[in-house]
Amino acid sequence: MWEEDVRLMREAGVNLVSLGIFSWSRLEPIQGKHEFGWLDRIMDMLHEGGVRVDLATATASPPPWLSHAHPEMLPVMADGVRLWHGARQHYCPSSPVYREAAGRLVKALATRYAKHPALAMWHVGNEFGCHVPACYCDVSAQAFREWLQERYGDLESLNRAWGTDFWSQRYSEWDEILPPRRTPTWPNPSQQLDFMRFSSDALLECYELERAILTELSPGVAVTTNFMRFFKPLDYWKWAEREDVVSDDVYQDPADPDAGMRSAMAGDLMRSLGGGRPWILMEQTTNRVNWRDVNIPKAPGQMRLWSYQAVAHGADGVMFFQWRQSRAGAEKFHSAMVPHGRPESTPTWHEVVELGRELAGLDTVCGSRIKADVAILHDWESWWALELPSKPSIRVRHVDQLESYYRHLFDANLTTDFARPSDDLSGYRLVLAPNVYLISDEAAGNLAAFVEAGGTLVMSFFSGIVDPFEHIRLGGYPEPFRRLLGLEVVDWLPLADGEDIKLNFGDGTMAHADMWSELIVLAGAEALAHFSGSTLDGRPAVTSHKFGEGRAIYVATRPDVAAMARILRAAAADAEVKPAIEAPAGVSAIRRSGPRSSLLFLLNHRDVPVDVPVADPGSNLVDGSEVHRGLLRLGPRGVAVIREGW
Ligand code: GAL
Prior knowledge:
Layout: H1 2-11, E1 16-19, H2 24-27, H3 37-48, E2 52-56, H4 64-69, H5 96-113, E3 119-123, H6 138-152, H7 155-162, H8 189-217, E4 222-224, E5 226-227, H9 236-240, E6 247-249, H10 259-273, E7 279-283, H11 302-312, E8 315-318, H12 347-359, E9 374-377, H13 380-386, H14 398-412, E10 416-419, E11 430-433, H15 441-452, E12 456-460, H16 482-485, E13 487-492, E14 500-504, E15 510-514, E16 518-522, E17 526-532, E18 540-547, E19 550-555, E20 558-559, H17 561-575, E21 587-593, E22 598-604, E23 610-614, E24 618-620, E25 626-627, E26 630-634, E27 639-644
Parallel strand pairs: 1-2, 2-3, 3-4, 5-6, 6-7, 7-8, 9-10, 9-11, 11-12, 12-19
Antiparallel strand pairs: 13-16, 14-15, 14-17, 15-20, 17-18, 18-19, 21-22, 22-27, 23-26, 24-25, 24-27
Helix pairs in contact: 5-8, 6-8, 10-11, 10-14, 14-17
Bound molecules: beta-D-galactopyranose.
The site of beta-D-galactopyranose has 10 residues, from loops.
């Protein structure tokens, strides 16, 4: 079958494969005995076929012999249940047994393949944290204590940072400290937050251990590990700094009407994580997945559209899970590039071949960059803290808040980066803070400095509430932003599920909002909209404050989509931010620029043809056609990549 595989890869224009991701038990069938012959053969065959390899370190699924001999390397959940081998990812990230065994395998692989001509990149582990983001076993407990000792130095500082006087939790010895295992009610929130930090770092150490071996034994070869979009357990900002290439796995739900918006958002995150560098779409499915309750297929053209969308948002490579559909195992009903049946009789195969042919003509795109005037603030620590239990409302969810902003940017074709609150924001004109519940003094100062220097900021409710220890910032909410916003939030009035509150924009426009409301006292800001018809009748709901050379807008509730669009449109106008082009509804437009080229991507998300006004003539790299000033017709789910200028 392998010969046929290489032949089909050539037919489909495949020039990179991820190889051996779950092959540890084949590479090392018994402890210390390696079998590389089969991998040598595949590597050689791929090389002869002109296909390069993103070679996996194969450490994501330890072989049964390891956990059988050392059950203590298996992960334990918060309730004490141990997870056994028989699936994948069954390892405790802090386990010295696992780490040593993984390290030995990576050394052997790197030694053998560092010089192989097919080797293009190293693929470390796989989707770190996917099934087991944290382990609560005794080994992890000890590693957690060491991590805490490093962070706090002495026990008194830890007691203070965790507020352990509350509920009699004061620790007198380090050994008393545990991961937040299952408790009668909420574990200490500061402890939980530190455990999330620790767990992200514990997995990062596993990645780093492998990366160190690879950079030593296989210098100059890029190293990546595949991310999972907005994956809560791992602080990808920290991870991405340690990757040569950021790569991502995107499994849109074809039944989700917002799938296009969500994958655009993931693309912008991946580009931003890499500081603007091109990234790789490492995994997507050609058609159906197997892990939803009902796995509906992608519509004709949808895989192509979403592949181009990744490229439009900064990807330089488009890959798939998986090459050939398997005959056995848990994923045999997951679609693939090569199906169970005869490839030539399936539409999916023809789409794959067509995409491969088209992408081969897009070399000009490689290395080009995207310039965004807008940044959305996204911080993992704030996300973790916001979603700890025991809050005024547990309905406030970080990604929902991001989406309530991003939706408008996507619809309006305003090119957007993601950034941390502490990042240098001076390159942006408009910064959006859907929610920064947790913020450090430095980051709060950074946001104020951005506005003072002339930037426009839009911030939503329940921001600036706690410091990095998850302690309330006292002195009137939101303490670090009161001067910047020109107001004080006196109290929060969360809304019941299904409850609605009205907004009055004062020009005859009324809108709805839900989930949250606040009692605000202005201290320099003006109201752009007031609450209407509740106990907050006539009180400010959306405010604007001139601060230094810039402006800070505050949104004290969750407005409906039209009202949010109105607020963000006004903010974009204030910041003089322009869309890539004025495109009709359902069409995305985004530009990538190289030293000598400007490339306009147009993506029609609709299943009917759409005419898009094009101002600059050029050529369409997808089919080589000339593009004239005027209307360009995009077919249903059609795409164009216009090289602007002749
Ligand atoms: C990813 C994983 C792949 C495969 C795929 C199925 O999470 O990396 O190995 O399981 O999902 O959609």
